[in-house]
Design brief:
Structural class: alpha/beta
Strand content: 15-25%
Distance between the termini: 32 Å
Radius of gyration: 21 Å
Strand order of the largest sheet: 1-7-6-5-4-2-3
């Protein structure tokens, strides 16, 4: 591995780092800048949070929007791409029989969110199936074949997470419009796009574009971008987020410990938290096992 790259990211030179997606690292310069901002906030937290932070966030949005070539007034920060996807899904008034389309190689957390919203509304998720190494025409045709007059949302990955396939987004969006009609929205999951592809986001012709506020490798705690043509006022955003590994239903999350206390997350779920172990066992409130976190 390139020595300059290792030094820039502060990585252990004795380890070959292959997975930058699950637990990515910020460059040393970024970590130093983040530490300086934290120190500034801690020195006068009331002024920073009450007076300064709103303007700083707005300025950061302006700068990032300029870099991406998008209109700042039509963009917003989200905590990550998955939350942005859930914000869009929460804005849909899904009905029984509606369809949500996603590709074979879509990101797992996005698929979970689609399944959650579809199950809640009596809708269904339809897969646009194409193999690894498929030509652009085959990918576009797969999305067109998966669409119908019942399609409400089509999620198109810019670069697929598990297979690194670069999807022809503009051609897919144009074809979806013809196959599904004007009622279908197109959402671009660009989790791996910025910093790797010089995209003209507006030229995609999509309704929503969601990407990260960082280039690869991915630093922990990085934020994301939601850019849209429209998102109805009053739509659910963070409250509708579906974390990776969760499914629909009510949940009990508990950690074995000497002491325990409960926090009500919503009217239908309780988080039982204890202090002895960092591992939590998750089970559905209906008694079915769900694994651990």
């Amino acid at each position: 591995m390139d020595a300059a790259f290792l030094e820039a990211f502060g990585l252990d030179p004795d380890v070959l780092h292959l997975n930058h997606g699950a637990f990515g690292v910020a460059p040393v310069a970024v970590r130093r800048a983040a530490a300086a901002w934290r120190e500034r906030a801690e020195r006068n937290p009331h002024r920073f949070n009450r007076v300064e932070v709103a303007g700083l966030v707005a300025a950061a949005r302006e700068g990032a929007a300029t870099f991406l070539g998008i209109d700042p007034s039509r963009a917003a920060w989200v905590r990550n791409v998955s939350e942005g996807v859930s914000a869009v899904l929460g804005s849909l008034a899904l009905r029984p029989g509606d369809e949500l389309v996603t590709g074979t190689h879509g990101y797992g957390a996005v698929r979970k969110a689609l399944n959650h919203h579809a199950a809640r509304a009596g809708a269904r998720v339809v897969e646009a199936a194409f193999p690894v190494g498929a030509e652009d025409d085959a990918i576009v045709s797969a999305y067109a074949a998966a669409c119908s007059s019942r399609t409400r949302l089509v999620v198109v990955d810019r670069i697929t997470s598990p297979t690194a396939t670069v999807v022809p987004v503009a051609a897919t969006a144009a074809t979806v419009g013809g196959a599904a009609g004007a009622g279908a929205r197109v959402l671009v999951d660009a989790a791996h796009g910025p910093g790797q592809l010089p995209d003209d986001i507006a030229a995609f012709g999509a309704d929503h574009w969601i990407g990260p506020g960082r280039p690869e490798p991915q630093p922990r705690g990085a934020s994301g971008w939601l850019s849209r043509r429209w998102l109805p006022l009053g739509s659910r955003t963070a409250a509708s987020r579906t974390p990776y590994g969760w499914s629909t239903g009510s949940w009990r999350i508990s950690v074995p410990a000497a002491r325990s206390d409960s926090k009500v997350l919503s009217r239908s779920s309780t988080w039982t938290k204890t202090a002895r172990s960092p591992l939590a066992t998750i089970s559905r409130m209906d008694g079915r096992s769900a694994g651990a976190m």
